[in-house]
């Protein structure tokens, strides 16, 4: 692989494990310096940063909750103060819970939207001045298959992920004059470590390729959209789901 991202700096939220970790590692392999964000688990974030530096890359940890505007501002400041710039924002932080709608109170609803959707807003707003200065800025939002297909027991998650798709298209219009591209990667049926049981919505889904995807396959899509060969791509959703969902 080339080091097509050399000289660039990326902030990846929710980068301590699974898809976020894979994204941080792949961007670093491409030559980017990476700000590794986790909400509170410093051990996980430190482990990812250590993997990057052990491979000859540059990384720094920035703990912070994406729902906290002060913490988000500090994350962006860490990128600029440490590496002098910020070129790539990956909004990956998310909560993916399952709960029947009849049992869902407003607090449960808001908890998911606060992280998935509002968190992306806070990060994009805080990063905007640095992305404008970049001249090659890009935002990649991480959505999900169910944001397009729907799913039972996931009204909050489906709404948040569908909102991210709309947010992506809106920002693509607003930020194009600043030379900033905005795209969404929508993973589906990815083999990740989970603290809870296998999601209920996966029971009836099958991929055309006959297997689940890996976090690294999602990361490859993000790396492409963040790179110099994707500067003519903006406002788009790239599905990484092995054919489990085929948009019309």
Characteristic key phrases:
single chain; about 250 residues; 7 strands; about 15% strand; alpha/beta; globular; Rossmann fold; 7 helices; 7-stranded parallel β-sheet
Structure explained in plain terms:
The chain is α/β, with parallel strands linked by helices and 248 residues long. The chain is built from seven helices and seven strands. It has one domain: 3-Layer(aba) Sandwich (Rossmann fold). The protein has helices spanning 18-29, 42-54, 69-83, 106-134, 146-149, 155-175, 215-226, and strands at residues 9-12, 33-38, 59-63, 88-91, 138-142, 181-187, 237-240. A seven-stranded parallel beta sheet has the order 3-2-1-4-5-6-7, with helices on both faces. The two termini are 33 Å apart.
Write the layout of secondary structure elements.
Elements: E1 9-12, H1 18-29, E2 33-38, H2 42-54, E3 59-63, H3 69-83, E4 88-91, H4 106-134, E5 138-142, H5 146-149, H6 155-175, E6 181-187, H7 215-226, E7 237-240
Parallel strand pairs: 1-2, 1-4, 2-3, 4-5, 5-6, 6-7
Helix pairs in contact: 1-2, 1-7, 3-4, 4-6
């Amino acid at each position: 692989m080339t080091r097509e991202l050399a000289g660039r700096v990326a902030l990846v939220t929710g980068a301590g494990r699974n898809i976020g970790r894979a994204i941080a590692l792949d961007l670093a392999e491409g030559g980017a310096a990476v700000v590794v964000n986790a909400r509170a688990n410093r051990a996980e974030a430190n482990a990812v940063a250590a993997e990057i530096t052990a491979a000859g890359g540059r990384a720094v940890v920035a703990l912070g909750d994406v729902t906290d505007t002060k913490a988000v501002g500090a994350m962006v400041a860490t990128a600029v103060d440490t590496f002098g710039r910020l070129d790539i924002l990956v909004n990956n932080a998310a909560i993916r819970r399952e709960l029947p709608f009849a049992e869902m109170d407003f607090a449960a609803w808001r908890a998911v939207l606060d992280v998935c959707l509002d968190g992306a807003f806070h990060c994009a707003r805080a990063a905007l001045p640095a992305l404008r200065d970049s001249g090659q800025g890009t935002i990649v939002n991480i959505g999900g298959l169910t944001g397009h297909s729907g799913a039972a027991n996931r009204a909050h998650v489906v709404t948040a992920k569908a909102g991210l798709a709309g947010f992506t298209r809106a920002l693509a219009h607003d930020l194009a004059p600043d030379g900033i591209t905005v795209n969404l990667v929508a993973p589906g049926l990815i083999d990740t470590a989970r603290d809870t049981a296998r999601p209920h919505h996966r029971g009836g889904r099958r991929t055309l390729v006959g297997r689940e995807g890996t976090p690294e396959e999602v990361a490859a899509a993000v790396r492409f959209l963040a790179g110099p060969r994707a500067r003519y791509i903006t406002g788009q959703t790239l599905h990484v789901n092995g054919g489990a969902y085929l948009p019309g």
